[in-house]
Predict the 3D structure of the following.
Amino acid sequence: MRLIKPYYEIESEIDGEKILRHIEKAARTCYKTEGKIGDFENTKKFVESIIRRGHESIIEHYSISVRIIASRSFTHELVRHRIACYSQECISGDTKVHKYYTIKDLYERQNGNNFDKTHNKTINLKSVDENGLIIPNKFNKIFYKGIQDVYLLTTKLGYKIKCTLNHQFKDENSNFKELFNFKIGDRLFVNGRPSLLKIDDEKLTFHYLEEKLNPLEISELYSTPLNSVYKRLKDIGIFINHLNDKNKSKYMKNHTQESFDKIKNTILKQYIDGREVWNKGMNEDDHPSMKIIADSLRKNYHNNGFKEENSNWNGGPTGNLLAESLKSEIKSCELCDKDSCRFEVHHFDGNIFNNSDENLIKLCVECHNLLHHGWTTGKKEVLDIITSIDFVGQEETYDLEMKDPYHNYIADGFVVHNSTRYCNYSKNEFNNNLTFIIPQWSDITPGSYKNIKEFNIVNRSNKAEKIWAKSMLKSENDYLDLLKLEWVAQQARMILPNSLTTEIVMSCNLREYRHIFKLRTSAAAHPEMREIMIPLLKEFQQKIPVLYDDIVI
């Protein structure tokens, strides 16, 4: 077992002056005294007078988020503050976790009729194995996590996902960590390159089946690589070889290999005997068949000129040379981090003259080739760069539990960790040790202990502390034994105690924090609550003057 002390981390940036000025502006707007806004000392006095008069509704206009790692009993008590918002790892309902289904779709099927429930068991989602390969994997259950604050995460390759700040992503060191631990410019793993064809399946189907456009025409319509169009058509299951081809006369259908060989040998024999092509020297006015051929060539083919007159002209090497000079300081691939190889610069929009920084990325030859061939269905995880993390509001959220041994899944192309609600607590970085929170009223030394003897050597504990330690060790051993007996994680977790570590993100406005601090730091509060809330209050008092100075511990 592993024993730790509880702790907290403030996720929001706390700028005391900025917060107080924000509150003053809201208050003076309410009181119609905007003209009296002055220096910061006057701001502090003004806010202090508001607090003193009990007009605390004004300070509801600012919220702060705190991540707390504590025991189960602590979180059970904390969530009784209903005005606060709490979140654990989860994603928005419209997140795609399957080619055809969002996570909300699977949740509704899970709670639907017998056919839906049975069909859910046959669906394969995707996980990442220890070698970084994308593999099929089944899921155990989908969880509804309520309406929570969600943030939009966007990457340089165009991936987007909406999730809570506590949802975990796989970083460049192959560790899973929460979104709030990432910042713009950090790298995380995604499922290859998204489709370069930026239209939905319904519109693509309309172009292909209703408007009778062939893949080449669709690629030209959207300035997209032809391979991306082929891939999307195959992914949605509507691709038919040669469908909508505008020059079908060039195909010889209903022939076997034997008949093809016979035709070939006959023609070769005729030429050996001096046969000439029947239309040699003819033009389109000489024969109806020549007219058909000429019309077909005019419609389906074109003669490319030189440089600017060539339809494939991209400006020559000048644009690339400029892009390479702009990226000369970068010495490794910006996706796979490979160095000591040949590099190329890629233009995201395909315009070789658009050398703005956000349009350029320096890559090894292998990654560059993958970009141009499309990664709609990735086979291996790749690194991508975060370009923005923006709050977008509140939405219904969900999470899921994958089957052993890979507790991760692909969501909107991102490699994310699955729900810890029913996760296997033995599968962590501490070598199958469960982690427990040390009781606040004890002097037990934090650390990892294999048995009670090892615990006693380190700790000169009293009888009560030894009983507690024995109970934690027993619950850990019993939990692992149940897993060996093929109980799944959500069944085995029933025997785990309230001392088991858990984490939660709490967000609430500054007025609600005043209520929480007054209630949870008093002498009558539970010792576990005071252990977290007293140092948190002191930090708030230091960083946000005036608002909490009147709360006495």
The chain has three domains: 2-87+425-543, 91-192+383-417, 320-374.
